[in-house]
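Following up on my earlier thread - several people asked me to post the actual chain instead of describing it. Fair enough. Here it is, all 123 residues.
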Amino acid sequence: MLRYDGPVETSTERFAREDVAIGGTVIPKGEMVLVVIAAADRDPERFADPDALDITRTDNRHLAFGKGIHHCLGALLARMEGQIAIGTLLRRMPRLRLKKSPQSLSWRSDMVLRGLQGLPVEF
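Reply from S.P.:
Thanks for posting it. Predicted structure:
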């Protein structure tokens, strides 16, 4: 899920330290750059069938927690919390279902963090 629809859409702003050419476009020294992590996690050159949600995908080195020196310090804790919370929720409420269609859900309009405005469920 983190690769398919992670909570962080873009990186924090960065500034080019020198003129850089990427894909035929020059980013001048000093210009602000935003990396769209959501696009990188859907890169067809990196992921087979990138727009498909496949929870059995084995090659899944996504960028939801960053990479290198920008890797999230809380990534291991977040994974553990997610496994415990989702596992516990599904065990305690095995009939949990969406009350509305997935297409009708409303998303927050935020350029950095993605999230639902609400998640109506029934059990």
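The chain has three helices and six strands. That should answer part of your original question.
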